[in-house]
Sequence to fold (513 residues):
Amino acid sequence: MVVDMTHISVDNVTFSYKYFPSISGGLLKSNAGLRSQTALTQFSIDINHGDRVALLGTNGSGKSTLLKLIAGIYKPEVGEIRTKGTVYTFLGRNVGVMPQLSGYDNLVVRGLLLDLPDDVIGEKIDKIIEFSELADDIHRPVSTYSMGMRARLTFGMLMFIEADILLIDEGLGAGDQFFLQKARKFVNSLLDNSKILIFANHSNQLLSQFCNKALLIDKGNLISYGAFDKVLNQYNHIKDQVKKNV
Amino acid sequence: MNKSSKDMVFFKDVIAGYKRSRLWKKLAVLELKSRYQGAVIGSFWIVLALALKVFMLSLVYSMVLDAVFEDYVMFLALGLLTWNFISAIIITSGTVFKKSANFLQQMDLPLSIFVYQNVYREVLSLIMYQLFAIPLVIILKGWGVISWIWLWALLGYLIIILNAFFVCMWLGWLSARFRDFQSLLGSLVMIVFLVTPILWPPPPEFAGSLYFQLNPFYHLLELIRAPILHNQVPVLSWYVSCGVLLFNVMVCVIFYRTIRHRLVLWL
Fold:
């Protein structure tokens, strides 16, 4: 019975995107040609404390939409989402990194976005600089960083986490092997049993290191939810089927 | 939720956004700095650009309008710096949320944070404009010209900034939903600049004309110009400006609930 523990409950949620096909413009009616694409259909799931869930599914299956709904960024058209615990999101490849600013300024903005006190931000930034091994490069504009350095900076941003529910969508590059080992140790220490992790990433290596469960979505429908290895096999099977059909 | 508490949702956003002042102040300062990144005199360009504009336009227009140079420079400088603020707010409103899509698509944040950021950035510019305007007035007219009535101009700035906040909010929504508005705002600002008495004072025989009296931008400018140039409190302009503020607040309150969770899908 989950009462005061971290918990996510998605109850019969349906959500669709409205979009204009291609570059339809110059129409007299602003919503002329507006189309609707259903991203999630009657989706229900309960995720409990201690669950580290890998979000599996092909591109466009609804993974990012589910994360944004749980984060409260989108509101379901039908159904309800309840979360117990503070939510931290790390969505998209750019994760709010502004390339014209230095790594340091980006870290300050990230800390402020999370509404952390100034002294905590200062302390965390010192730790992040040490962890990411960026040293003096932290004061250079991010636009001058190599891909590896960017990956270190974005991973370092995870050190700001002070939340019970952690939602991560892509964005986290693996970086080099040495750094990956370091990152794994850090994330493991970060996630004690009272926290929830939902992690979407195309790297099975990363997912297997951090997750104990997996959730498979296809075309906005929940296909399977359970032990990581079992669901991953199911996902690989679906991918093989798709390849054969192609 | 009853109706009155539903209407209060907008003000909750405004208060929640205000509480995040460390964030929007930092974003605004970084934005200003990055705008002048690499420039030798940096953000002092804000003042220099205004000074150059006022000087060049005064040379030509004082001649064309057959006006006394000193009087015209003051009229133009006060009008232009206030207009620079108003026009910058209107133009940047078109992209205020689009620009912040990276944040809004990641976190459930109060929308007003980005409006505060936009307005604060322009207020910083407005303060820098005063580095040019105040010495200019004192050089041209001497210390004796300073009067307590000038405090009305300060209050005038306050009501212009309040209007800027709410206009930026609803124009931001409108531009995110209807992309045409982003393009329209630029053209609109240019037209308003030409039809509002900024470069030229209204001819005395037409000062009471509806052409000017129905133009809210004329009244907003008069909040600043009348106390400083004529030692007068522009009562009618105050009524109009407060009416415009009420209208802007109402628009925000009425549409906020509809917009709140849709805006992120339009970005």
